[in-house]
Amino acid sequence: MSLRQMEYFLAVVEEASFTRAAEVLHVSQPALSHQIKALERAVGGALLERMPRGVRPTPMGRAFLPHAEHAVRSAAQAHRAARAAAGAEGGELHVAAVHSVAVGVLPDVFARWRAAHPQVLLHLHEYATTQALEEEVERGTADLAVGPAPSDWPGTVVPVGEEEAVLVVPFDDRFAGRTTVTLPELADRHWIRCAMEPVVHGERFLDRACARAGFRPRTAVWTEHTSTAVRMAAAGVGVCLAPSHIVRGAVGEDCAVLSHAPSWTRETTVFARVPPTGAAEAFVELLRATWPKPAAPGLHARV
Question: What is the pLDDT of residues 30-71, one digit of tens each?
Fold first, then answer.
């Protein structure tokens, strides 16, 4: 069983066709079929089922698939890590991040990185939830991940800063002239909820916080993306909970941003399966130096 055979298997699954997979891989179809048959002999059974219109994995193939993906991605990571450790020019760096970090923090970091390291190609992988981020990085999708501190992570975790959850209202809201607000003051409001809202101990953060304040939030709109929720709040549809950097750094020009009293913060980290070296280590240092600083000191409550 070879890495090339697993790459061929993944291509056939992705394309659902031997013909299209051969074109993508730039090999002849007989050569591709020969390698797949050799792989099937090595594992002891059929991995692919030839259908009248296409190809699909067999039950054995479906069981084999995630492990093949992991092996191929790990090999790519090993190659990049070796080049970085050897000080090789060029190369690639794959960075995974939750959406709020990708939109609110990484544009400035990537711009600084490109100015300092124009020979290193950056790949950004975005995820809607912390759970999805952790799962994909564990599978080897990226060299490192930027997001909330993972729980029980077996690899390397490096703190880079803090993320504050703030409340967004229109610029003409009655609270717009203030810097802080408490949840009980918002008990009569409608809310813009987002699928990317943090989950704490199995419960959405806003539901948990409002319950402690003695009320249940009334939802006006559900959105998929935090940036959309912020725009809705700016238009006056309702109050929105969002990370401060996505509001102040990306989509919040015509809205008011309020900190909760006490402020809601959570630690943001870089985490990886192995300690970052070379280009990855340099990226972590740049991220720590560039991470947005808190707006002002005060009381803090951990999210």
Answer: 888 888 888 888 888 888 888 877 888 888 888 888 888 877
15 by Cβ neighbours in 10 Å (0-12 / 13-18 / 19+) ranks as middle
Strands 300-302 and 144-148 turn out to be unpaired
Task: Give the H or E element holding residue 269.
Answer: strand 255-272
Sign of CA dihedral 206, 208, 213, 217: positive
pLDDT digits (tens, 9 = 90+) for 263-277: 898 889 999 888 888
Residue stretches of the chain with pLDDT short of 50: 86-88, 250, 296-300
Pairing of strands 121-127, 54-57: unpaired
Query: pLDDT value at position 297?
Result: 40
Q: Angle CA(132)–CA(207)–CA(177) in degrees, nearest 5?
A: 105
Residue 247: strand, helix, or coil: helix
Question: Smallest Cα–Cα separation from 189: which of 210, 164, 212?
Answer: 210
- Compute the radius of gyration of the chain from its Cα atoms: 23
pLDDT tens-place string over residues 164-184: 899 999 988 999 889 999 999
In the Cβ-directed half-sphere of 276, how many Cα atoms lie within 13 Å? 23
pLDDT of 299: 38
Residue 85's pLDDT is: 52
Q: CA torsion sign, 168 to 173 to 176 to 182?
A: negative
3-class DSSP state for residue 303?
Answer: coil
- The Cβ of residue 185 has, within 10 Å, a number of other Cβ atoms equal to 15
**Helix 29-43 with 18-25: angle, nearest 10 deg:** 110
Q: CA-CA distance, 196 to 37, in Å (whole number)? A: 43
What is the DSSP secondary-structure string of 66-102? Answer: HHHHHHHHHHHHHHHHHHHHTT-SS-EEEEEEEHHHH
| Tokens standing for residue 89 | 């020019």
